[in-house]
Design goal:
Order of helices and strands: HEEEHH
Distance between the termini: 27 Å
Largest sheet: 3 strands, antiparallel
Number of helices: 3
Oligomer: single chain
Number of strands: 3
Shape: flat
Length: 97
């Protein structure tokens, strides 16, 4: 990415952070690789005085075939790791939708 693109992303992030109220989605998959968890939160204010409230929490189980591939991670080739990275990204996107 060029510097202009990064500067644009930084400015966009700063503008979002400066809003008095925003709704954000946080996503993770723990070490058990059982599901993808997503939390929708409302953030009011900023810095040390910010408040966060949970609006919705959900989990979506991994497809069993994808879960097996994730668990085989250490035995995968570089190409297979790259492909797995894309598959996990797709699973995260599907969860958010």
């Amino acid at each position: 990415m060029g510097e202009d693109v990064m500067t644009g992303w930084m400015a966009r992030g700063e503008a979002i952070a400066a809003k008095q109220e925003r709704i954000v989605a946080g996503m993770l998959s723990g070490t058990s690789v059982d599901s993808i968890d997503v939390a929708f939160c409302r953030i009011r204010g900023g810095g040390i005085g910010a408040s966060v409230s949970l609006l919705h929490l959900a989990s979506r189980p991994y497809d069993p075939a994808l879960r097996r591939e994730i668990r085989r991670f250490g035995a995968l080739s570089v190409r297979e790791v790259a492909e797995l990275h894309c598959m996990v990204g797709d699973a995260f996107a599907d969860t958010l939708m």
